[in-house]
Design brief:
single chain, alpha/beta, Rossmann fold, seven-stranded mixed beta sheet, 7 strands, globular
């Protein structure tokens, strides 16, 4: 990466811009990802009085699951590099009436938290997007108390995740996006087996468990799938407004062809989502 700081600034800006779409589509995304969130919360093993910190929290659906489990006396700290995402998390906590939470902007690579100050760290789909994930794992290890747990989720291979591959492949086929350079942070940067284990081992974690977890996204129609992805994907959000009507039609035509194997008789779309989930002990 030529300029990591520029990458971080651009990433923060694009997630700020995407926050409204994530808030709008939060419920649909969480329906598919509830098994992932439940695995992460169960394996971080929250107890009354614990402090649990969520990295890259977005709407905080995962971290908020832990809030009741740390009562009485415990709290959950919801963090994200995007201040707009932090506001989404605050609104969600308020909506649910959850009071034992703190939501604030924080970079995962330089955590504004004291050494050995939290009992658990949860990160659903965050580490693989960072310019320096190794630094983030080291920071995670630093802020955890001895015996504290980290749990995380990342995506498995691109071709195993047609919920996004159907659209990403169309964008590449029509040359509407530049191919990502090798080694670039992104959703599938941790897809190769063994990657998560190496990062955790290098950061000094023990009792490492990494396993696959499969779930599905269900959309009422191909149109709903496209609109969902347009709202949530920073890439698609930036590309679609620039398209001419003809190019927009071409894009939708290619996406619809890619979706054909997943169309149901009633017109709905059922798309596999395949994840790595992991846990380790400080």
């Amino acid at each position: 990466m030529d300029d990591p700081d520029e990458f971080r600034d651009q990433a923060r800006d694009k997630w700020d811009e995407a926050a409204q779409g994530w808030e709008k589509r939060r419920a649909a995304f969480q329906r598919a990802m509830q098994p992932v969130s439940m695995w992460l919360v169960e394996r971080v093993a929250p107890q009354p009085g614990y402090t649990i910190l969520e990295l890259a929290a977005g709407p905080a659906d995962t971290g908020l699951l832990a809030a009741e489990l740390v009562l009485p006396g415990g709290k959950v700290i919801l963090t994200d590099t995007s201040e707009q995402m932090v506001e989404v998390a605050r609104r969600r906590a308020d909506e649910l009436g959850i009071r034992n939470v703190e939501a604030r902007q924080m970079d995962a690579e330089w955590m504004d938290a004291e050494t050995a100050s939290v009992d658990g760290v949860i990160c659903r789909f965050g580490y693989m997007l960072l310019a320096d994930p190794g630094a983030a794992f080291q920071e995670t290890r630093r802020i955890l108390r001895p015996g504290g747990r980290v749990t995380l989720a990342t995506w498995r291979a691109f071709e195993d995740n047609p919920w996004t591959a159907t659209i990403s492949s169309a964008l590449k086929e029509l040359e509407l996006v530049e191919p990502a350079p090798p080694g670039e942070p992104g959703p599938f940067a941790f897809a190769e087996p063994g990657t998560i284990e190496r990062y955790l081992e290098d950061a000094g974690f023990d009792d490492i468990v990494v396993q696959p977890l499969d779930t599905t996204f269900v959309f009422a129609s191909a149109d709903e799938h496209f609109e969902h992805q347009r709202d949530m994907s920073p890439t698609l959000r930036s590309v679609v407004p620039r398209l001419s009507p003809a190019d927009h039609t071409r894009l939708r035509d290619v996406i619809d062809v890619n979706l054909e194997p997943y169309l149901q008789p009633d017109g709905s779309v059922v798309l596999p989502a395949r994840v790595w989930v992991a846990a380790a002990t400080a």
